[in-house]
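step: validate -> pass
step: tokenize input -> pass
step: predict -> running
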Amino acid sequence: MKRRINETELTLHVIRAGTPPSVKFNIFSRINRGGLPLTAQEIRNAIYEGGWKKPIRALAEPQAFKSATNGKIKGERMEDVELVLRFAALYSMLWEQPSRASDQNLDDFLNEFVETRCRNWTDAKWDDVTSAFAKAMKYAPKVFKTIAFRKYSAPGQYRRPINRGLFETESVALARRSETELEQLSQRADEVIKMYGHAFNNDTAFTDALLYATGRGAASNKRLEVFESIFTEALK
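step: predict -> pass
step: emit ->
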């Protein structure tokens, strides 16, 4: 037994002060296998410092968020924080570029946001995101009624669980619209839902974006494209 111990090879990961956070994240993810594995958001919260944590956490607290999601997002493993973070990262791209890189995965997208993009945000930028998120949470139940953030189900059918990709997409698409437009969309909710159902049942690329590699840029871009088109058509 002593010989086996003495001859055992140990693999050591030396993380120095200058190691990039993205490398730390990957190493943390790979060795995080014993006990109760941490979620990607729990690892992100542990590794990435900065002023993003407090405002993102604050966005997940209001009753409007809990009501819009029917209290289904418990937040026990930071699921609520990740949903809000996905919104902030995608919504803020309005200020930079129109869409995500098609091959970028979700972890890279969110890590880049907390490490670089929002690092030097002013209070005004956080206030913009906060008001945009509140607006989306207010109108999501009005525009999509009982299937807000869920895959389409016809009246009388089983209501599906909240879908993270749809939460990100619908909330951003709503946040990009003015209050006047959102009031009009609320009045035309039945038409919006009808068009959503048509896309869900007939647009293969859209349904694929809800089923396969849903966190990749290509899927995110496709979902947003479809909802932007639905809103524009409904407003006509």
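step: describe -> The longest helix spans residues 123-144.
step: cleanup -> pass
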